[in-house]
Amino acid sequence: MPAGSGDDPARWAKRMWLRRGHAGGDVDLHVRRVGSPNERLALLFRDWFRAHPEAVPAYVAFKRALADVVPDTGTYPM
User: Is the pTM of this model over 0.90?
Assistant: First the structure.
């Protein structure tokens, strides 16, 4: 939930499942309520990267650097 929004936190809830070590590859699945602001935010985020593919390598580098300093995915989900 964005800081200062005053919105109901339930509207920003999501479920997350992880699959690791599978022959088909690792999966991080994020599930959001249809029509929620959280769903819209995720879709806008995806669409922005599709429209600006040149920004993807910098975002990947940022996420990898973050993963190196955060103790576990419970502290900051990847």
Answer: no
- In sequence order, which ranges of 1-78 are alpha helices (DSSP H)? 37-51, 56-69
Paired with 44 in beta bridges are none
Angle at 57 between CA 61 and CA 44, to 5 degrees: 105
Domain ranges of the chain: 9-69
Residue position matching structure tokens 């602001």:
37
d(CA 33, CA 15) in angstroms, rounded, equals: 9
By C-alpha distance, which of 62, 66, 63, 15 is closest to 38? 15
Whole-number pLDDT of residue 3: 62
pLDDT of residue 62: 92
Low-confidence stretches of the chain (pLDDT beneath 70): 1-4, 73-78
